Amino acid sequence: TSPLKYMFILIDFSRPHERTIDDLEIIYDELLHVKALSHLSSLVKRELAGVLIFEAHPFKGEVLFTQGGESKSWYIILKGSVQCVVYGKGVVEIFHEGDDFGKLNLVNNSPRTTTIILNEDNTHFLRVDKDDFDRILRDVEANTIKVKEFGKDVLILDKVPINVKTIDGTYQVYYKYFVMSGTSEKMLEHFLETYICVTYEEGDTSLDDFLSTYVIFMPINQICASLLS
């Protein structure tokens, strides 16, 4: 059995808390070759080795999650491909082996912005659930996230530190992705999905900036059509 196949077996049939030191080392060695994790430190990869879950889906057409649903996990494709579907637009992107998805919604605590449908039979994923993502990855993720549709960047977000006052009067730093650029339609979509569904963060002027300038980039009839859709 190849090390990669062995890793699949370990993750599939061994509960994370039951993995031995040898199991974790084998999984870690294989994570070094996963493209979606290449920007992460060795320490973070070792932590992920203890929590990653292998998930296999046998049939094309299965819905992994739906737009508007609760964001519970981050996914990395190990085998196969998936369709990324947006309501009113249809298929906007196809993700392949080595790609990942679901991260931005976890970071921003927002609902799913797309529906993910399996594009092939026998598709395999690595999955990180929200609690583990928040503990291990929230503050070490890439500084910039680019959202693509039809192969083009339609939204670019940068990670910015936010100071939040705690109950005892001290301040705690955490990170949130702010909009840096994008198409008018995608920015509107992002604001509707993010700012209406989650708490508006003090100091984030992205929504105010968009509302005060959208008329320059997006005629009234276009924004009305987008809102209705």
Automatic annotation (TrEMBL):
- Name-wise, this protein is Rap guanine nucleotide exchange factor 4
Q: Which CDD domains match?
A: CAP_ED
> Per the record's keyword annotation, is Lipid metabolism included, yes or no?
no
This protein's species is Adineta steineri
Annotated Cyclic nucleotide-binding domain residues: 36-137
List each copy of the N-terminal Ras-GEF domain by range: 175-229
* Keyword annotations of the record: Guanine-nucleotide releasing factor
Instruction: Please provide, alphabetically and separated by semicolons, the GO molecular function terms listed in this UniProt record.
Output: guanyl-nucleotide exchange factor activity
**Where is the organism placed in the taxonomic lineage, from the top?**
Eukaryota, Metazoa, Spiralia, Gnathifera, Rotifera
